[in-house]
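Page 42, continued from yesterday. The earlier attempt failed because a stray header line got pasted into the input along with the sequence. Redoing it now with the clean sequence only.
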Amino acid sequence: MPNWFWFIFLAAYGGCVGSFLNVVIYRLPEGKSVIKPRSRCPKCGHGLAWHDNVPVFGWLWLRGKCRYCKEPISYQYPLIEAITALMFGGLYLIYYHTMLRPEFSQLGFVATWPVYVVHAVLLAALLASTVIDAKLSIIPPVIPWVVTVVALIVLPLGMYMHMRMQTPWTPLAIGLTPIAPPRGTTAAGGGLVGLAIAMALLRLKIIPLSFADYEKLYEVHAKEHEKEEEEPWFHYPHARREVLKECLFVIFPAVGMIVGGYLGPRGQVDWPWWLLILGGVVLGYLVGAGLVWVTRIFGSLLFGKEAMGLGDVHLLAAIGAVLGPGEAVPVFFIAPFFGLVAAMMMYGVSAIFKKRFQPIPYGPYLAGAAVVVMIWREPIIEFTKPLLVIFDIFFIVTTRAG
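This time it went through. C-alpha cells are written below.
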C-alpha cells in the first residue's frame, strides 16, 4: 500500500514548486530575477498576499481574477501548479509502488530519496523548458545548468552518505544513478578539462562566438514582415559558416575525452562508488550534449539551416547528467517519434481549420522522451543495447584499449 503521507507531502510540495515555475516561465526569458521582487499581478503590478499564492486553490479562491484590478489571471498558473503536483506525486507512486523501477521499490523511499529529489528537479526543469520553448523557441541555459549542478552534488553525496550508513544501496546502484567505469570516469574528467579550456578560449575571444549577429538579423526579418498577419519562420542565412565555428569549440572536450580514456586504468581498480557516480554524471552530461551538438553541426552543414538549437544541447546534457550516458542515447532516438506524432497532429488540425501552424521546437520532444525513459528504463535499455554496444566499441577504439 502507498504511504499516503509521502504522496500528499510530495504532491503539495510539487504544487509549491509549480508556483515557482510560473515565475521562472514568466521572468526568465525577459532577463528578470526570479527571486526579487516578490510575486505581483502582471497587469496592475500590485504585490500578492501569501494566501493568493497558495497553489491552485489561490486561483480558485480569487475566481481567476486579480483581487485588486479584477483583470483575469491566466489559466497557465493553476495548470502548471497542478501538473507539477501530479508529476511529483505520480513519480513517487511509479517509482515506489509499481515494479516499473524495481530498484526504487525494493530499497524504498527512505534509502533512495536523494535520487528521487534529483529526478523531481529534472521533471520540473523539463516542464519549464517545454513551456518556454513552445512559446518562444528558446530554452534559457540556466534551467539545465541548475539541474546539472544538482545532479553533480546530490547524487555522489547521496551515495557517500548511504555507504557511510551501510545502507544496502550498492547492488542496485546501477539502476539508480549514472555510474561510469574507471576508464569512463577518467574520460569524463578529460572531457571536463577540455570543456573548461574551450570555454576559457571562447571567453578570451580566441575561439569566435557563433551566431553572434542572430538577433540583429532577426530584427531585420521582423521589420520586413511586421505588417503580415503571420510572421514567416526565421531561418538564419549563414548557418554553415557559424556551425564551423562551433566545431572549434567541440573539438576540445572531444579530444579531452579520448585522452582521458586512453590514460585511464586498464586493470581492476577499487575506486569509491561516489567517484564513479560523479564520473557517470559528467560522462552523461558530455554524451547528451555531444549527441545533439554533432547532429546540429552535421544537419546545419547538410541543409544550410540551423538544425536544432543550443538550448537542446544544454537540455539533453542535463538529462544525461541525471539519468546517465546509457539513458541519454535512447532519449535522443525516442524524441523524433514524439516529433512525428506532433507533426501528424498539427497536419490534421491544419487541414480541419485551414490554418498554418508554426513548427514546435525540439525541446518538448526531448522532454517527453526523457519522461518515457525515466518510467520504462529497463525495457528501453534492453531494446537499445545494440546502440550502446556501438558507442562502447567506438570508445574502446578511440582510446586504444588493450
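Notes: DSSP finds 16 helices and no strands in the chain.
Reminder to self: strip header lines before submitting.
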